[in-house]
Amino acid sequence: MSKLVEKLSNKFNEWRQEAKKIIEQHGSTVISEVTVSQGYGGMRGVRSLICDTSRVPQEDGLIIRGRHLKELIHLTPEEILFLLLTGELPSEEELEELKSELRKRKSVSQYVWKVLESMPKDSHPMVMFNTAILVMQKESIFAAEYEKGLRKEEHWKPTLEDALNIIAKLPAIAAGVYRIRFNKGQIIQPDPGMDLTGDYVHMLGLPNPDPNFYELIRLYLVAHCDHEGGNVSALTTQTINSALSDLYYALSGGFNGLAGPLHGLANQESLKWVMKIIERYSGAPSVEQIKELIQETLNAGKVIPGYGHAVLRITDPRFEAFLNFGKKHFPDDPVFLTVSRMYDVVPGELKKIEKIKNPFPNVDAASGSLLYHYGLTEYSYYTVMFAVSRSLGLSAQAVINRGMMSPLIRPKSVTTEWIKDAVKK
Ligand code: HAX
Prior knowledge:
This protein is mostly helical and 425 residues long. Helices cover 59% and strands 1% of the residues. It folds into two domains: 1-22 and 51-265 and 380-425, Citrate Synthase, domain 1, CATH 1.10.580; 266-373, CATH 1.10.230.10. It has a three-stranded antiparallel beta sheet with strand order 1-2-3, with no helix packed on it. A hairpin with a 2-residue loop joins strand 2 (63-64) and strand 3 (67-68). Helix 6 runs antiparallel to helix 8, helix 9 packs across helix 10 and helix 11 (232-242) packs antiparallel against helix 12 (247-258). The longest helix has 26 residues, at 156-181. The chain is globular. It binds N-hydroxyamidocarboxymethyldethia coenzyme *A. N-hydroxyamidocarboxymethyldethia coenzyme *A is lined by residues 44, 231, 262-264, 266, 303-310, 355-358, 362-364.
């Protein structure tokens, strides 16, 4: 790993100097103000975190290290990981070194399978996945080095080791969760010669996988990789890691947040909603039937899964990438057809509700229909696949935070009494 470590050493020297200078010269410049509504409103829009792996302008969508997702969707997860970490795309040699490091670290210890196999058969796949990450904590290189005594400047090195170990093992763990949870037979061992995407496809073990399924999984692993620093899973992961809890604790905790229906679980909820309407009308529904279901869902006090966003105010470019994939490969598939017909109807209906700030689809509205087409029909599994991809961005953010020697995350809370006094003044 000498090339990546050397590159990051140089980058951190440069980035630390840059941050130091910015703080020295402009430390007291105000970048955000917090209103009472924001205090009560989940801190929406408060600029108070630094995250350099990616940013999400509300009118553009995901930009990774200065490059729009649209320019990157043809790449592999390994190339994206290098870009997230260093800010540069890898040379051929750098990519080969990273791939070979990941290949070496694939194997999952037997005790992890024992834990997964002993879990209740109706455990949610995300509980199994997050448990597997947490139970591997004893393998943390960071925790071991910290125990021995580790200078702050060096914290990023064992964090990078943990990141590569975890990222290398997650496809096997995710595929193992699929096979154990849904009674698919024996776990399939990793193939040391395969890349992340190929091995994940191999270990899922779907019968007769279509060659385009590989292409979908590659796209899936790239599109979900990162979404700046303030979303629930990113903020949770970095908050935990800021206490110098290692990446096993931090990622497992962050992914517990990803498992919420307002966040990554929306992909499961979205397909469940689509299947409900297909079942009810025995096929792809009409525009009127979709409108009916929207009304029924809203009247029941539920959200329309896969629509809306805390930051975006446009159709999510990640949704567009998935929609284009479906249009190219199976435009007439009834599930996909329903998803694309929903896109014609839902935004118009949500626009009629004033409080909804973004009526457009997010990443979770289409991805499930594509997996379903290729035979991955167990939709409670979909968030696990999201998490495999998001581990790239969250691990890169953690390595960078340790490299930048970022402090403990500790904002200040106030009481309702304090607010009442403050508004009187
Ligand atoms: N359906 C119904 N109502 C919606 C809605 C939707 N899709 N999107 C927003 N609203 C409602 C909110 O529930 C909120 O209502 P209340 O004030 O009564 O609580 C109101 O509109 C204002 O919300 P907002 O400011 O537009 O959106 P938020 O920043 O508060 O929330 C969410 C953003 C993504 C959580 C929201 O749009 C939502 O619940 N969407 C459906 C679930 C979903 O798709 N989540 C995945 C988001 C992407 C992601 O993180 N993936 O991992």
